[in-house]
Amino acid sequence: MNNKFNINALGRKVPTDVNGNNAIPYMGIGKHKPTGRKYAPPIVSSSDYPSDGNKTIESLKAALIKSGIADGMTISTHHHFRNGDLVANQIFDIASELGIKNLTWVPSASFECHVPLIKYLEDGTIHHIEGSMNGSLGRFTSEGKMEGMGILRSHGGRYQAIQDGEVHIDIAVIAAPTADAFGNATGDRGPAACGLLGFALADSQYADKVIVVTDNLVPFPCYPWQIHGNLVDYVVLVDKVGLPEKIVSGTTEITKSPDRLLLAEMTAQFCNEAGIIKDGFSFQAGAGGTALSIGIYFAEILKKNGWKARFARGGSNKYLVNMLEGGLTDYILDGQTFDLEGVRSMRENSNHLNTSPFTSYNYHGKGNFSTMVDVVILGATEVDVNFNANVVTHSDGVLLHGIGGWQNCLFSKCTILPIPLFRDRISVIKDEVTTICGPGELIDVIVTERGIAINPLRKDLLEKLKGSSLPIKTIDELKAEGDAICGPAEKPRFTNKAVAVVKWVDGTIIDTIWQLEN
Amino acid sequence: MNNKFNINALGRKVPTDVNGNNAIPYMGIGKHKPTGRKYAPPIVSSSDYPSDGNKTIESLKAALIKSGIADGMTISTHHHFRNGDLVANQIFDIASELGIKNLTWVPSASFECHVPLIKYLEDGTIHHIEGSMNGSLGRFTSEGKMEGMGILRSHGGRYQAIQDGEVHIDIAVIAAPTADAFGNATGDRGPAACGLLGFALADSQYADKVIVVTDNLVPFPCYPWQIHGNLVDYVVLVDKVGLPEKIVSGTTEITKSPDRLLLAEMTAQFCNEAGIIKDGFSFQAGAGGTALSIGIYFAEILKKNGWKARFARGGSNKYLVNMLEGGLTDYILDGQTFDLEGVRSMRENSNHLNTSPFTSYNYHGKGNFSTMVDVVILGATEVDVNFNANVVTHSDGVLLHGIGGWQNCLFSKCTILPIPLFRDRISVIKDEVTTICGPGELIDVIVTERGIAINPLRKDLLEKLKGSSLPIKTIDELKAEGDAICGPAEKPRFTNKAVAVVKWVDGTIIDTIWQLEN
Lengths: 518, 518
Known about the structure:
Chain A is of the alpha/beta class. The first copy, chain A, has a nine-stranded mixed β-sheet with strand order 20-19-18-17-21-24-28-29-30. A seven-stranded parallel β-sheet of chain A has the order 5-16-15-12-6-7-9.
């Protein structure tokens, strides 16, 4: 690949051209002001749709053909079924059977269950993936085997890109646990219930053709209509739309590891001493064992003080549901359910709210919810001495994770990364991270088992933690401790070929993923 | 006004130019195929909005100024407060105070409470109204006193026009019974609760600037977020956003008139004999006394047979709520609450669904709900021998009513107009109606106290009603009876000046409102 590069505002080398499109280098937070207008889908007439509201069609293949599937098109899917998705692979099996080439796949995330698609990346059915590439697909990309350049976006960035027309989706395929023949669809019920379908919202609003695939067709009206049938072209009934046992995956139990429990306890104590936890506060913690444990500590602190959170942001799980049902939070604002209790609560409890990347994260909206959260707890694979953090590649340079809502959550009032100081004998604190996913100025606190580093920009937090019993250190001190224990880490070796880019929430390019040297 | 005219597919003379815009004559049902793309609002950046989510501003005036109010702009409001609206007049008081001229007002409907705006129509503050002009504003228009040409649209047509960019709204002002500082807003609670805010949905999605005005500010999140704060620029807190006692207006009691009860009974019997009422059926009846009474008959028939409707379309009221709570319908699909029981039910009952012109009526969607309703009961001021009907002008030629959802509802599987054969000694059945609002081919049945006329296009209904005890007649027979009783009616006398146009659901012009001769 013959590309030119720019140096962006973080000093990272980023391509000027991504898959034939001009790419804007990251300019700093809030510096890139978008111009132009949102993507405008073609106007349609309801006279071209069945008057009885029945849009069912015999098969996904028929729906894709009717939708005009052709070489070079962009096809999107969502990842609410996570590793239990049964639909995405079928799309490309059909495309391959039809001899269609050069498709762009825009999943909201991909998982190990999508490894069968590697053959279509190899044979030219799929040109490239825009969306997170977890595990094997990430490694495939890192090895330079994908024809086009991968594009990684946050959940909010994906909404922004589709809304703004940076990605034009020709055909969206929305797997739905329940739907009616008109195309109204919901994720909160049905044999493959996954909670909500918010990751597919932008697809439904902006794709030219929208196909709903379900294994649970109910009489009109299917309600809630998380996806509006008024945006849907075809409905396909299949035997099984997802594997329920794999839909609810990820870590859904609090950690039992003493190291992680220590991190959780230190983080909760930090929040308490900083005055973040109070009546009416709000928080977001992810689905990992450490994050779950922090939630438990938060709940205990609220309870002890007779306080109640105003809202907890999900990924929801049984612990958040316990808080909601136990009166420790007014609302769960949920973007993704991580276990069956989350699904049940969303279905039954009107204070368990269905949010989407549009409401929660879209940077090109008139504000979004992310900035109103008092504290978020996130992970990272690496952090550098300027608090820049990496969440997509490991220190060996391999792309292994998507961004998820991580970048979007950085806009909270306080962002804390509780991370072990070293993993596999490699210190996580670097002079420079392999891939910058989030600029350090948005990352407020790093909590490690050997000390807590507060971003010098947060003078208020430094002030509040003065005299704390917690081990407050500088990031340089933490780095020195990590280096002393682990020794100097080998840097990953890359070729000069860009295999993927990491977009910032505003559509600019914050960093590049490079091909691994053999 | 120097205008040219076309003759449309119904033979009506319609202007080629409406307020400087090219106008497409009505071409027949489903004949006009739209081209082009939906309106694309400018892309914004959340970095230009307050990060604490607080968009409150001290006054409506400040919000309008910040929104850039200027000569020639288009400003929209909704009519969920009906005759209790306190906000629309204030907007134009402010505009007048600022010396702004030539505004276009796009209400979803106007009422007698808006009569104070006549002075602004007279002094050039407001150039013209696009939206229903009930009562005095209609008469003002009919008298040729409005500077520009009025444009009447159905609820669905208004959504379509905004979506398609036929109307570009510069500033939408959304009065909301409850909202948070971020702009999330709901109609189902608060001192001025009106149920829902669906008529303002298009405005929130497509206007350049969106102002929410509320008298009940709650901590984030305001839920349900019938209006998404992510689309809102400013939030204004006022003392009183609407007069609750006038919000719930219209006829909300079943009729006691023996004539109307007869119409109701005949209509229900007709539906029963035609096999329309059955387990799982659906219906929509308006808020008038006759329509309410028909709903009562429907409920009785369901109960007697042990049946349950799948859904009842609202305008909701206590009678529909009784059906829902009594297990006689699975759902209310509500577009507008007509009484406090409707508001309560919408707030409390998750099977009382919040619909909008987008879901229910938009003709330029991938279908809409209106075509799936088994039977709708509507009114009309006049009907002609081709079943064309009028709902906006009276036989004296005066514009007195808006279209509401009337045109959209015609797409149901069976449309019935129960109307008295004569009113004020004038027969309602004409050779030609004063204004065609709906083409006869969509109107299936006319029920009068002296007989029922089935549209000859509905051979199935004619077949089913063979041998009925109901007085089935031809429309010509009904007309002859009316004429015999009332004698020939005087035709209204008009000048050749078009004062308003009636749009069809697809944006074409179905008829013209003419200036009354002095």
